[in-house]
Specification:
homodimer; 434 residues; alpha/beta; eight-stranded parallel beta sheet; six-stranded antiparallel beta sheet; 14 helices; 16 strands; 29% helix; disulfide bond (chains A, B); Glyco_hydro_27 (chains A, B); hydrolase (chains A, B); lysosome (chains A, B); Glyco_hydro_27/36_CS (chains A, B)
């Protein structure tokens, strides 16, 4: 019986379902409560930080007033622990009445009045990860309709307390149910993270058809170790992951923890740079009311945001791992441009890394580059040797453009002298040899 | 033959040698080149950062002009890679002529003219760790005399390229040789770090007689992982280590990396707080020319420095490890005072830790406390429950004094209700049960 259902569902998802909501043609940007605020429901003793409508209104006010919205940070996303422990008499989810006395629709309208959007959270399973009511298969349609009725703009579907069969059915069903409401609702799927993140268990072709973004890997924590483990996993598996991403469908390495407690300024610049290379969703999870000016200026760096938001939507890759602990990352951008990141894993002192654009497989020519953090600009021939000084756990990031029009997009060759060229028309990638 | 030498030396060190230089009655403070500048000798391409007299003059100028000296940061210490690859014709060490054209004595006088002190580095062995000439047993006297002739004020004796027998002979001999010069030279011994840091291999009684400070453990790196591994080791072995420390003889958990690239502001506050609890030498290794105001204000915090420099010179301890990731550290201070540090190992969000001074084994009474980072002051009864909000990887640190004179020093009892009291007269510690 279970087997029959599974086969039926699998066939159905490959053929009938599809996420045709036109949303998130560039990676979504905004703010998400989880990493920084978790399941803090102690509004009596911790009123400024507990999961309540006040927290989301506070963050919306900051996004609106402090220059975030204009840069693209428009989503204000609720995560776990927002709901009442019981559904209402009609079987609908309802917010905790003490912490969200105005209701979710009130919050959505507060966002919309300010040009912002509201995201909400649910769980494919009997309970959310925090123990609140989950969305079992029979509740998918009613919950999708509830979110649409509330005028919600984005929905994250977690996967605690369900098995693989239920997930295989539920994630596509929710996609269909959201579409069926007629309201455009961005759909974030935690499904692949519950499947281990890799084929053959994960079907990235299907995910791109049903979800706008998906969490591939474990939750980020407020530590450099956590950021590094995520970076390692995503770039070790870049051949599988990069081809899955594109306009409307994004790999999600999880939130930005810039502005929290665990990252140095160097490490914060590194997370921002590498998330831009990955074409990752940019959801901050921090306290925008008290964020330092240093962290704010990293998160508000216009050139990095424009790299992240490049309309081609091509996920970048690691192209070099040097034994000395320097790594180079590259992402092709529109207008014949590209982004380069020089990253140091060292923990001693700034490393003077010597290379040339031709060593990084740029074609013959002259290139203008801008250091996105210092604003320094210069022109380099592909053959010119240069030195970048990369701080421990830090990056140097360049936006590289070709002042003369190149016949072909700057490309990465597999290996040193030969291999398939990057083909901008077909949006396919060569295998990059590390 | 070797055995006979060893036995003779061991007996000799226990009876005749002794460090009677009257120096470093409180933990030494200053600046040390190693962690931040390593063995960078590339003055052609990296002139501002290479190991040269210019670097030490730059740092001396900063210590003198930016308020460091008045706070106690007076040592400017050269580490490895300062010397020529050859001794001079008389067998003396000599500085690299290109990088130290003025010579070491010139540098020492530059320091002394500004109320600062100069430290230098050598290695008990055939070579320094960086491959420069070492100090073999037959060179100990001439090297000690050379440093004294140069008017050097402190000497760090590393231990690469020597065996246990040579170290057993060399470290005490150098102590005797430095004393014999008649110049007061603070003596930093890396010996115990080469012996694994613990008895029975390490004899801390002997070390206290021959060295002013000693490195017990591995080198610090510019990362929170490194700071944590040092903190773990020192507090796991606190019963052995704390009794070894006192005025003129200090355990050295290695340099402060505050102001470098790897620590967040929270983590920087934590290193400073825990180094103060440990009565650790405070040697910064950073770039004082470009240090951020945030890092500078942590390093220049007067109350933490006064805790570090407390004249009793008692090394503090960890008194509690909570399963939730909160740890409490305590150090008894002069004037019936004490320091408390609440430290969080969490990587999620601020933790609201509830406790009382009586739960931390303070005796009945009323205590005034000052939060050393915020300046907030209040009075607490021992029985009053309070909450401290401790940030991830951060600390809350209090200076606690008793407004009413207490008959006995506030003490820690072993276990909850009984055990030996702290005896201020005898400077002995109870065993603290964790």
């Amino acid at each position: 019986m279970h087997f029959a259902v599974l086969v039926f569902a699998s066939v159905a998802t490959m053929t009938t379902f599809g996420l045709d909501n036109g949303l998130m043609r560039t990676p979504p940007m905004g703010w998400l409560a989880w990493e920084r605020y978790r399941c803090d429901i102690d509004c009596k003793n911790d009123p400024k930080n507990c999961i309540s409508e006040n927290l989301f209104i506070d963050m919306a006010d900051r996004l609106f007033e402090d220059g975030w919205k204009e840069l693209g940070y428009v989503y204000v996303n609720i995560d776990d622990c927002w709901s009442s422990m019981e559904r209402d008499k009609d079987g609908r989810l309802q917010p905790d009445p003490n912490r969200f006395p105005g209701g979710i629709q009130h919050l959505a309208r507060y966002m919309h009045d300010r040009g912002l959007k509201l995201g909400i959270y649910g769980d494919m399973g009997t309970h959310t990860c925090g123990g609140y009511p989950g969305t079992t298969l029979d509740k998918i349609e009613i919950d999708a309709q509830t979110f649409a009725d509330w005028e919600v703009d984005m929905f994250k579907f977690d996967g605690c307390y369900s098995n693989a069969v239920e997930q295989e059915l539920g994630y596509p069903l929710m996609s269909k149910a959201l579409n069926a409401t007629g309201r455009p609702i961005g759909y974030s799927c935690s499904w692949p993270a519950y499947q281990g993140g890799l084929p053959p268990k994960v079907n990235y072709t299907q995910l791109g058809q049903i979800c706008n973004l998906w969490r591939n890997y474990g939750d980020i924590q407020d530590s450099w170790n956590s950021v590094l483990s995520i970076v390692d996993w995503f770039f070790e598996n870049q051949d599988v992951l990069a081809t899955a991403a594109g306009p409307g469908r994004w790999n999600d390495p999880d939130m930005l923890v810039i502005g929290d407690f665990g990252l140095s300024m160097e490490q914060s610049r590194s997370q921002m740079a590498l998330w831009a290379i990955m074409a990752a969703p940019l959801f901050m999870s921090n306290d925008l009311r008290t964020i330092s000016s240093g962290a704010q200026s990293i998160l508000q760096n216009k050139m990095i945001i424009s790299i992240n938001q490049d309309p081609l939507g091509i996920q970048g890759r690691r192209i070099l791992k040097e034994k000395v602990g320097i790594e180079v990352f590259w992402r092709p951008l529109s207008n014949n441009a590209s982004a380069l990141v020089f990253f140091s894993r060292r923990t001693d002192m700034p490393y003077r890394y010597k290379t040339s654009l031709s060593k990084l497989n740029y074609t013959t020519g002259s290139y203008k580059f801008t250091d996105v953090y210092t604003g320094k600009t210069d022109v380099l021939k592909d053959s010119t040797e240069f030195v970048v000084s990369v701080n421990p756990t830090g990056v140097v990031m360049w936006y590289v453009s070709a002042p003369g029009k190149l016949k072909y997009h700057p490309f990465i060759r597999g290996g040193k002298l030969h291999g398939p060229a990057y083909d901008a028309e077909e949006n396919t990638f060569p295998r990059v040899f590390l």
